[in-house]
Amino acid sequence: MVPLRGVIPAHLLPFTADLEIDEPNLRRHVRALVDVDGVTGITTNAHASEVATLTADEQRRQLDIVLDEVAGRVPVVSGIYQDGSAKAARIAAAIEAAGADALLVFPSGVFESGANLRPEMAFGHYAEIAAATTLPMIAFIYPTTSGLRLGTDALVRICTEIDNVVAVKEWSNDIIAYERNLRVLKSLDKDIAVLSSFSRSLLASLVLGADGILSGHGSVVVDLQVELFRAVDKQDLAEARRIWDRIWPIAEACYADPFLDGHNRMKVALELIGRIDAAHVRPPLQPVPDADRAALRSALAQAGIRG
Hints:
- This protein is of the alpha/beta class.
- It has a single domain, classed as Alpha-Beta Barrel (TIM Barrel), CATH 3.20.20.
- Helix 6 links the parallel strand 6 and strand 7.
- Helix 1 packs across helix 2, helix 8 packs antiparallel against helix 9 and helix 10 packs across helix 11.
- The radius of gyration is 18 Å and the shape is globular.
- The model has no long low-confidence stretch (mean pLDDT about 95).
């Protein structure tokens, strides 16, 4: 299976003024990410690309555009954002037929009502998807405060009993839970890659240990994420802290409350530095206030990021 390690940004999705997919700007954005030395993959059809607002046809079109633009230079990971297990399995088969290299499996929205108390539901969801595809799968670990969370025991069963599951996107947002998951997964006989999604405390998670980074924030700071990952890998803590000091203000500006504006703000950041033409978002998201734009402009200047 395709190795899932290193820095794998989840790209944003530019829209036109009439809120259709902006293909020229999407291609420009994806190309800029892939051109960064050290990027080892691209993730599409994820939170960062506003997958919740896309039709099935739009998700397929986005995947096709990304596959064409990447042209085999790095693996392409495509998200499966679907509540029903049978429907998710059909999507997985279609993604494999389209030519993607791996799957990022989002938890079913059904889990919100208490599936953490019925872990066999999460296991069955992953198992049904795995039966429909030969692609490697990444399990998406949600924050410990979310109804979509997976406990460590449930995660271990999914990783050990389902062959396709070879990595986790670790977004528990709880450093204690993160370390517990990391230590348990690394004690298994099976090699499971842990990809940090701790965008607001990325340095801490990498120092504890991680096989890579999978985050929408990489759409803005992927070059710095590569530098940070390499510095930690070399155990150069002073250099890692220097790089993190540049990333931190941008992470704080992007992920400030309300959290739902996070990827919205990242689009604004790309617009401010001239990497996309405009930061249009689909409802229910709305344009960010002027104060957010000012905070992003200041954070980008602190980080020394320009167009």
